Amino acid sequence: ERTVAKLEGGHSAYVFSSGMAGIDAVFRLLRPGDHVVLSEAVYGGVFRLSTQLLVHFGLEFSFVDTSTPDFVRTALRPNTKMIYIETPANPTLSVTDIAAISKLAGERNLSVAVDNTFLSPYLQRPIELGAHIVVHSMTKYLNGHSDSTGGAVVLTRPEDAEKIYFIQRSAGTGLSPMDCFLVSRGIKTLAVRMLQHNANGIIVARHLDAHPKVRKVFYPGLPSHPQHEVARRQQKGPGAMLSFDVGSLEAARRFLNHVKLCSLAESLGGVETLISLPAMMTHASMPKEFQDRVGITEGLVRLSVGIEDVEDIIADLDQALLYV
Questions:
Q1: How far apart are CA 322 and CA 320, in angstroms?
Q2: Residues 22, 151: Cα–Cα separation, whole Å
Q3: DSSP class of residue 216?
């Protein structure tokens, strides 16, 4: 916990049995009747937790394109208490200007929580940009080896830390000793892994962007990305997460059925390249109309670029794209 707090520059941190357990704890800081503004392209588990569970305990949620601060301002209500951001968002890679949202929140004395899973503290430090709370699925980059699950909540305010600690103890959602060991081991190689992830991600994104079978690539490191300049300001690098559209569900299935090096999995952030179909996997709990609203098409493929030789990754993607 001390290590994660230092990595993010926070006052303290608490670790949980999963990323979702940590996120649930963050929402438990609120009271019945409170309102939260969330990034609309949020992880499917957060969408399910908020719309199918926490609403029954009196919390209210609005899903907004947080990449446009004016949309966030319009969504605020008298009972709004928190703005919850995923940046880059899963799986659209939409980027939110953390400093701009933090400034907006400061005008209303609102808490800002940021999910930093996609970049890790090596590539982005939300607290330095004004966030009050940072959450991680440590299952991903912090662990980095796809052999452990865990979550972390990093706090900047002692009063929030006291509450999160009480929630962790009361709900019995703390991280097991073995998982603490595994994540601690993973963090020791975080810097060297993220350097290779980031370098490979840039090369793979550029390659796919020029591929005739790919309709569009969503990656903050490409100049075509709508928030490219925001990403350059607040991120140390664009990272290794990207999504690309192959046009249809059938095309996506053919592609996924023919990858050899890449592994089909809902997870991400491991040393190996992982691939998924968000509409049918991570975001299956979202209604089709909401998927369409945020840009999660049936042909959208999410890629977590690993640290293998980048030419091997590209060769595997190219041979699988022959079937699209």
A1: 5
A2: 6
A3: E
* Cα separation, 136 vs 122, whole angstroms: 13
Beta bridge partners of 120: none
pLDDT tens for each residue of 255-282:
999 999 999 999 999 999 999 999 999 9
Dihedral, CA atoms, 219, 301, 138, 11, nearest 10 degrees?
Answer: 30
Q: What is the mean pLDDT of the chain?
A: 98
Cβ–Cβ under 8 Å, residues 304 and 269: yes
- Per the structure block, which two tokens stand in for 292? 């369409």
CA atoms within 13 Å, Cβ hemisphere of 126: 32
Q: Which domains does the chain have, with CATH numbers?
A: 2-187 (3.40.640.10), 190-321 (3.90.1150.10)
Please check whether residue 239 is in contact with residue 95, taking contact to mean a CB–CB distance below 8 angstroms.
no
Helix axis angle, 190-209 to 310-321, nearest 10°: 40
- Work out the number of other CB atoms within 10 angstroms of the CB of residue 68: 16
Instruction: Give one DSSP letter per residue of 78-93, joined into a string.
Output: TTEEEEEEESSPTTT-
